[in-house]
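This part of the workshop introduces the protein records we will be handling. Getting from the letters to the tokens is the skill we practise here. The record below serves as our worked example for the rest of this section.

…
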Amino acid sequence: MTDNVTGDIAPGSWSPKRDRAKAIQTIVKIIFGSFAAISILTTIGILATLIFETIEFFKEVPISQFLTDTRWTPLFASKQFGIFVLVSATMMISVISIMVALPLGLLSAICLSEYATPRIRRILKPMLEILAGVPTVVYGYFALLTVTPFLQIFLPDLQGFNALSAGLVLGIMITPMVASLSEDALYAVPRSLKDGAYALGATKRETVTSVVLPAALSGIVSSLILATSRAVGETMIVTLAAGANPTLGFNPFVPVMTMTAFIVQITKGDAPYGTIEYKTLYAVGMTLFIMTFALNIFSFWFVRRFREKYD
């Protein structure tokens, strides 16, 4: 039934087109909900596997030994399970990478958002995207075959496998992430804040350092934390360039073994399935998960705590 004046379908009347639209919307909701459920169930499955296998590991190895031993030799005859040997190497390489990515990424973001002309930005932006698209195995061989021999010219004590080269190249790899996310944070600063600084007589540099950067601080810190999580979980670069010597300490000139490098070693078949050596894979994986999860929680808290809101 239609309205005599407008010709529209009267409220409450039956319409095949309206029913088809509702049916399509219902189907779309089901499809999208199914994909969301798959991702959630996959995450729960991975976490459950880590938890159950880690519990089996700790039935044989006391958690006190896991946290206090100063050696990591699960594949040796004399087995010791000091996880901080792997954690120290992972954190050392991550810190070196952040020391590289922070100045390069932040300065690149400032250049692209505040100083670069549209022409220069069209050149620099794709170059950063190319860095992000290089396979990590290429970065690993670049660190091993190019960066390490170059550094040995100035550092004779630097060994062939070392944490320094791995950290430097890893920093280059995560620079595009820092630059891209920091640039988005800088762009989000309202134009009115910059105009107010210029109206008070501030220079371009003063506006950037005293107004723009503090206003975008939460986004910049969030980008650094996400980049750190990426560095902690990196595998190929540290496996190829850092070596496989589980050594406790913070000497970047010697070979070290990170958590991801050990996981690669175990998955190559060095430990039979079901043995305590094999179960260390899940204990290390759970430790890695806890570290990255803690970083993400801190990033979420920091953004909510220090985010600037503008009307």
